[in-house]
Amino acid sequence: MKTGQLVVLGLDCATPQLMFEQWRDQLPNLSKLMEQGVWGRLNSTIPPITVPAWMCMVSSQDPGMLGIYGFRNRSGHGYEDLFIANSNYIKAKLVWNHLSDHKLKSLVFGVPQTYPPKPLNGKMVSCFLTPNKKMNFTYPSAVKDELEKVTQGGYMIDVDDFRTDNKAELVGKLHQMMEMRFKAFRHFLGKERFDFAMLVEMGIDRVHHGFWRYFDKEHRLYEPGNPYENVVLDYYRAADREIGETLAMLPPDATVMVVSDHGAKRMQGAICVNEWLIREGYLTLKVKPEKPSRMTMDMIDWEHTQAWGEGGYYCRLFMNVAGREPQGIIPADKYQAVRDEIKAKLEALTDEEGNNIGTKALKPEEIYRKASGIPPDLVVYLGNLDWRSAGSVGTGTIHMYENDTGPDDANHAQEGIFIWKGAKQPAPQALYSIYDIAPTILRYFNIAVPEEMIGSSMI
Fold first, then answer.
1. The whole model's pTM is what?
2. What is the mean pLDDT of the chain?
3. What pLDDT does residue 160 have?
């Protein structure tokens, strides 16, 4: 089996309206790849969020099949039964596992949800879920020492806090993180032959959330002439330079994909979903908070509560069902009717002027091939992702215009980016699918696509 090296460069949250439209002429290396290959928007997972979108990409299974619906997931029907979804919860076979079975060697670098690292035929540096650099986050473990040596101790797993008011410090950390990640990736890529190599850089996601208001003239918080007006553009330029340096070292027969797991858009504000549930009579608290507070499960009067929600870029809404939750009150035979009622009311949500904001409340069993584990009862795109979900209570309002977990200017968007320059690239499409990436990689290496993959090869 002989074919050229395949390199996948992942830019978490890279968004098509910026890369393909607004700033394309300032991104020469990415533009050249586009001119020499095919490119377009990449339809993401539901929901479009880092965990589990990257794992969906490299397994070609949807969140319901993986049983992973976001960073935090229910491990049981108890009110506080939650787990953070790291690699231990991924049971699906991933692209590099299939390649290892065929004696093909992989370099996997920074792909979200690979911590803790698992064995493969090759090398792995795992992801931002690593608690700190004291942990073993590489495979083999010796890679960690080499990584530190190559970066003179400057390798960053992630920035400590991208929701910060210290913007100047954040800019410096973001550039260091990307520079060190690409530097280390090129070091290992140039040191030995890998059939497949994949890097994911998280910085574009972080810079969007930290600085969107400073460049987007239609953002309600935009101020002309602010000192951070070019931060996001400069970061895209820096990513383009790093990609250019990486392309320059690849062998002539290499082919390259550039992908993102989802896109981004300006955030209009937040809908305080639990305040809304209280107003509508679905949620009761033991005591009303005197000031905005993070809602905890012990604050809830479960005997008089039918539903509660979680904050985030989308809302996970859960229902308190008799015989399912410890103090459930919705009779099992009324579950569907109550869920439909809540869905209809959510989809009728308006802004403060009374205009419908276009919310989508989705039932897991209707959007996934199967709903493994314990899915939310509704996956809610507030304002079709123009608004985020705020879980706080005591806000005194349904609409909030500052993020309740720290400064954040952007929300996730459904469509990311896809570029492929190579001999086997497909015919151009208007919209590519995140689920088609893994089958395409396997077919590139002449490996049969397994039945459990829901996507289709593009070649």
1. 0.96
2. 95
3. 85
Query: Does residue 57 register a pLDDT over 80?
Result: yes
**Contact in structure between 320 and 328 (CB atoms under 8 Å):** yes
Share of the chain above pLDDT 70, in %: 98
Contacts of 99-105 with CB under 8 Å at 24 or more apart are: 99/195, 99/196, 99/445, 99/447, 102/1, 102/445, 102/447, 104/1, 104/195, 104/196, 104/445, 105/192, 105/193, 105/194, 105/195, 105/196
Please give the pLDDT value at position 297: 97
Better pLDDT: 406 or 297: 297
Q: Determine contact, residues 73/85, Cβ cutoff 8 Å.
A: yes
Q: Is the pLDDT of residue 406 over 90?
A: no
Above 80 in pLDDT, residue 459? yes
Give CA–CA dist 90/59, Å, rounded: 10
DSSP 176-242: HHHHHHHHHHHHHHHHS--SEEEEEE-HHHHHHHHHHHHH-TTSTT--TT-TTTTHHHHHHHHHHHH
Mean pLDDT of 212-229: 94
Q: What would be the CATH architecture of the domain defined by 6-266+412-444? A: 3-Layer(aba) Sandwich (3.40)
Contacts of 340 (CB under 8 A, 6+ apart): none
- In the block, residue with structure tokens 């400069």: 234
Amino acid identity at 8: V
Identity (one letter) of the amino acid at 162?
A: F
- Give the residue from 174, 55, 154 showing the smallest Cα distance to 112: 55
Distance CA 335, CA 315 (A): 19
Handedness of CA 57, 62, 65, 70 (dihedral sign): positive
The answer to whether residues 155 and 148 touch, using CB atoms and an 8 Å cutoff, is yes
Is residue 2 scored above 60 in pLDDT? no
Q: Please say whether the beta carbons of 40 and 430 come within 8 A.
A: yes
Compute the distance between CA of residue 343 and CA of residue 355 in angstroms, rounded to an integer.
Answer: 18
pLDDT value of position 1: 42
* Sheet containing strand 38-43, strands side by side: 138-139, 122-125, 106-109, 196-201, 6-11, 255-259, 415-421, 38-43, 431-433
Residues 193, 29, 42, CA angle at the centre, nearest 5°? 85
Helix (H) or strand (E) holding 34: helix 28-36
Q: Which of 309, 258, 267 is closest to 406 using CA atoms?
A: 267
Per domain, the residue ranges of the chain are 6-266+412-444, 269-407
Q: Which of 202, 221, 199, 206 is nearest to 171 (CA)?
A: 206
How far is it, in rounded angstroms, from Cα 203 to Cα 225? 24
pLDDT given for residue 403 in this prediction? 65
How far is it, in rounded angstroms, from Cα 89 to Cα 83? 9
